[in-house]
Amino acid sequence: MKLAILLIVAVLLGCSGDDPGSQCLDSFRMTLKDPDSGKVFSFAEPLLTYTATNSYGARTQGKALCHKQSDGKWTRHERGELIATLELVKEKLDGFNQCMKNGAKDRKICAGGSIALNRNSDLDLEALKAEARRELGFE
Predict the structure, then answer these.
(1) How far is CA 97 from CA 80, 119, 124, 126, in A?
(2) Whose CA, among 2, 11, 36, 105, lies 20 to 30 Å from 59?
(3) Which of 59, 125, 61 is nearest to 90 (CA)?
(4) Looking at the predicted structure, is the pLDDT value of residue 7 above 50?
(5) What is the DSSP secondary-structure string of 46-114?
(6) Smallest Cα–Cα separation from 129: which of 91, 76, 77?
(7) For residues 98 and 88, is the Cβ–Cβ distance under 8 A?
């Protein structure tokens, strides 16, 4: 009987949300379509992988960068996500520009799989940023 009580207490303490992944998820939980659906899938500092339901009710997986604040709490690191997104945008643009400078006649070849770079109109940086965020899982 004592062992059962100890196990129950251990499980309850383990689910208290004090772990870094749960703290990080809790910091942005209210931005999810269904805040109660958010679950920590894995946390490998600083990357949190979580699952949540989307507007169709399907369970999807997302990622967030987390950082430990001076008070010891873990929160989403939105600036870090922005930096990672912009670095990927730069990498895509550098590759695209180098390809075009090398004399490629077809924009599609240089765009690779990028829908934003494949458009024949002016470059849409916001679309390219959104594409990079999706690729990194920061949705």
Answers:
(1) 26, 14, 15, 18
(2) 11
(3) 125
(4) no
(5) TEEEEEEE-TTS-EEEEEEEEEE-TTS-EEE-HHHHHHHHHHHHHHHHHHHHHHHHTT-S-HHHHHTT-
(6) 91
(7) no
Q: 């899938």: which residue's tokens?
A: 41
Where do we find the tokens 């765009």? 111
Q: Is 101 exposed, middle or buried (0-12, 13-18, 19+ CB in 10 A)?
A: exposed
Cα atoms found within 13 Å of the Cα of residue 30, Cβ hemisphere only: 1
Task: Determine the Cα–Cα distance for residues 138 and 63; give it in Å rounded to an integer.
Answer: 5
Return d(Cα 15, Cα 33) in angstroms, integer: 23
pLDDT in tens, 51-62: 999 889 899 999
- pTM over cut 0.90: no
Phi, psi for residue 63 in degrees, rounded to 5: -130, 155
CA distance 116 to 130: 9
Q: How far does Cα 89 stand from its chain's mean position? A: 15
